[in-house]
């Protein structure tokens, strides 16, 4: 019986430690002004509440992503999400005055945590924007952060051996996409620059493994949609700077 209670206590302490290591977030919804000549803007993201360097880094990165997606002018003085919403709205109104039949613009951004352990937290952003033309543009972005250092990580900073990882990823990519290992990487219709495989712009930690996603136009046509590759941690931990416990 004593062993039972000891085991129960150990599990309780472990669960408490895991809970304490998690960051605290709350949902945030931002919407553009509603009027006949206003674009539709719908943003659903999160904000980190802890007064820590990592929370500041996350909130800053999310703000910069929103500004990047919504800003259509050359104004470099846009510093907040609200200013970015206004910039998107003003740009549409300006176009509307010149082209009365301009189709309604729209923008959607959704973001949430998809992975967190004691070292890493990853936020996934899905965005869609339409500003005229044949179709809109959808994309997925992964934001990876080092919780201990309180900083956002560039892709190359995820790895101890980025060259080794890239070679491994290419082998797995060729298998998934049925590209012969000895053939040109673009032999089946892909559009890698210089006919050489390269890692995508967006790489993120997930519960299933490290996910690589090539957004539309990155290495294939719009019609092909995004191209995804998931690599299990038990196969790639040797390349990662921050290992994932299995």
Automatic annotation (TrEMBL):
The record's InterPro entries line, in alphabetical order, gives: DUF3298, PdaC, PdaC/RsiV-like_sf
Where's the DUF3298 domain?
A: 168-234
Q: What domain of life does the UniProt record list for this protein's source?
A: Bacteria
Q: Which residue numbers delimit the Deacetylase PdaC domain?
A: 38-136
Signal sequence, start to end:
none
Q: Name one Pfam family in it.
A: DUF3298
Protein's recorded name: DUF3298 and DUF4163 domain-containing protein
Organism of provenance = Flagellimonas okinawensis
């Amino acid at each position: 019986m004593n062993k039972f209670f000891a085991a129960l206590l150990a599990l309780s302490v472990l669960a408490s430690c895991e809970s304490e290591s998690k960051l605290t977030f709350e949902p945030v919804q931002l919407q553009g002004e509603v009027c006949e000549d206003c674009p539709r803007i719908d943003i659903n993201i999160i904000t980190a509440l802890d007064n820590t360097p990592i929370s500041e880094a996350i909130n800053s990165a999310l703000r910069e992503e929103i500004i990047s997606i919504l800003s259509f002018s050359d104004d470099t003085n846009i510093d907040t999400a609200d200013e970015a919403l206004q910039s998107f709205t003003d740009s549409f109104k300006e176009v509307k005055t010149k082209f009365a039949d301009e189709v309604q613009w729209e923008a959607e951004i959704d973001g949430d945590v998809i992975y967190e352990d004691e070292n890493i937290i990853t936020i996934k952003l899905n965005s869609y924007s339409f500003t005229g033309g044949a179709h809109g543009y959808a994309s997925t972005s992964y934001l990876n952060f080092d919780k201990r250092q309180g900083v956002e990580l560039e892709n190359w900073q995820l790895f101890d051996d980025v060259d080794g990882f890239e070679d491994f990823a290419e082998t797995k990519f060729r298998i998934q996409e049925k590209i012969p290992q000895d053939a040109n990487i673009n032999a089946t219709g892909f559009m890698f620059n210089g006919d050489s495989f390269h890692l995508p712009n967006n790489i993120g930690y997930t519960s299933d493994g490290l996910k690589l996603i090539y957004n539309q136009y990155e290495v294939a046509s719009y019609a092909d949609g995004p191209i995804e590759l998931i690599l299990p941690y038990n196969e790639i931990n040797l390349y990662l700077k921050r290992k994932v416990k299995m």
